[in-house]
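Worked example 2:
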Amino acid sequence: MPIPLTTVEEFARHAHATQTDKAGRPYTEHLAAVAAHVTTHGGDDHQIAAAWLHDAVEDGAVTREWLEEADLSRRTKDIILALTKRAGEPPEAYAARVLATPGALLVKAADLAHNSDPERAAALDPATRERLRRKYAHMRGLLGLPEA
């Protein structure tokens, strides 16, 4: 692993420092939860680094160019890019890319697990909670993951 995980975590916390989630919580809480899930479910350093940065390109915290130049392993970069949604991309294509990228499924499963957490969802309005519940259930089905 070219960059120590502590440095990746510090960078991710800084890059997302001003962002909040749909419930208004600091976005870094989500990143920490995803990284912790990946860690406790046997993820390696490449997957843990990707967990910290899984939304960095998609959320505009970094550019694809920055990612390509970053001192991260190719495996970490590939996982991050696999998890980066593309404009107009159907969920089926996104899921296929995640499934085709070694190591990406564990990170996405961790992301979905935290996004589906009942405590987190309880802070959302009912319409948003239901829309996201259906969205995450659909993605879990496409990825062959069990219900939350």
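The mean pLDDT is 94. The chain is about 65% helix and 0% strand.
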